[in-house]
Amino acid sequence: MESPDPSADLWRSATRVLDQNWTGRYTVPSRTLYPHQWSWDTAFAAIGLAYVNPGRAWRDLRSLFEAQWPDGRVPHIVFDPDVPEDAYFPGPRFWRVPAYAGRPARGSTGLVQPPMHALAAWEVYRHAAAHGADAAQQARVELDWLYPRLVAQQEFLGDRRDAGGSGLASIVHPWESGLDNSPAWDDALAAVPADMSLLDTYHRRDLDVSDATHRPTDSDYARYLGLVENYRDGGYSDNDLALRHPFVVECPAFNTVLATAELALAQIAGVLGHPAAHRHRERAQGITAAITHRLWDPESNFFHARDVRSGRLSPEHVVSGLLPLALPDLDSRRVDTLVAAAKSARFGLPAPANDRTGPSFDPVRYWRGPIWINVNWLLRRGLLVHGRRDEADELRRALLRLVHRNGHYEYFHPGDGSGLGAPAFSWTAALSLDLLA
Ligand code: 9WN
After folding, report:
1. Whole-angstrom distance, CA of residue 11 vs CA of residue 184
2. Residue 69 to residue 419: CA distance in whole angstroms
3. N or C terminus of the chain: which is more exposed, having fewer CB within 10 Å?
4. Which pTM does this prediction carry?
5. pLDDT digit string (tens) for 186-218?
6. Band (3; pLDDT cuts 50, 70, 90)
7. Is residue 322 part of a domain?
8. Is the CB of residue 91 below 6 angstroms from any atom belonging to ligand 1?
9. Which pLDDT does position 292 carry in this prediction?
10. Looking at the domain assignment, is residue 1 inside a domain?
11. How far is residue 3 from each of residues 7, 12, 291, 405, 425, measured CA to CA in Å?
12. Mean of the pLDDT values across residues 144-169?
């Protein structure tokens, strides 16, 4: 039987999950599967912590940005030195990150993830005053500390990672997308050698703690490891990426987050009295134009990932192609088309990670079919940005129902809604708080 006040119930359980996953310095995505700090997870956690503990939201963001590299990249994982090497694979030793001046005590990877942090910082700031004058003052100080670091993160992605010369950031590894084994990468990955012998040397820790049918396959992992080795052995340099690296892809979701970050930076610059607000808005417009120009396929009427090396668009319809809906400057024809696609038999709201009608759809395998709360949260933002209040509210209620009935799981079965992956997952809990508020 459902509790008489499901909202209060959900609020309590979400807060509990965030408390349990707090290490004292940062929030882990999940105690079972991901024992370190992940980049975009930190941003989503902060969006929820804004309601219940803004001090912890700022601490979380600070912990991550203390590990920022001098070139501006914010690592996709910052390792906890107190966690044993074999608690997560690939652990710190695999990455061999070069020493640099001011390098933090915690090791990291050399990859990135979608830059959700400017939006998160803006959201935490926006809600700070509700926690009193001290919280409002702290928010201002934290924003001031973060702003130049957020700008450096955007500059790294916008300059060093513009491998296609198109005004878009490229990812050099599926892990950078956050949507690891999405079918969006299948075509580009087919050109990456899968050296299965790499797996003889290493142990896939993820398979000790989760169901192998839910996780990326061994041949995916062989390619993932080979890609890290190539990027790592080139010193994590981004020079001539398209010539030297076998996986260089422009993702519509990653670049939508990049544009959204510029818009959040425009707001932050306004509050801090920096003259750059206009420049941030111009950058967001430039990225929006490039996404539309480079990643829209007029044949399929959808956004697709582009393989910079081959120049080809991925033929797959996946949820990342819906996310440009979050761009305020997207033209109304494309907005209508995306909303219709989101509600069509391919997806349906809440949207699964992949086209339900396509051959690559797999209802339990990670980013190839299940429903994820964070991408649906972004979709809902897109609906709101374009004034689709009814659809946005319907989606909000459906997401809350899903989590309330099944728990704060990492992802959900797109058929029966059952919880999959890690239980007590931070971004599911954090975004539930935002959806409830
Ligand atoms: C690799 C932590 C991360 C998320 C990603 C998700 C998954 C890692 C993994 O977990 O990726 O980075 O081991 O599978 O795909 O989005 O940030 O929650």
Report:
1. 34
2. 36
3. N
4. 0.97
5. 999 999 989 888 888 888 899 988 889 998 999
6. low
7. yes
8. no
9. 98
10. no
11. 9, 12, 45, 10, 22
12. 98
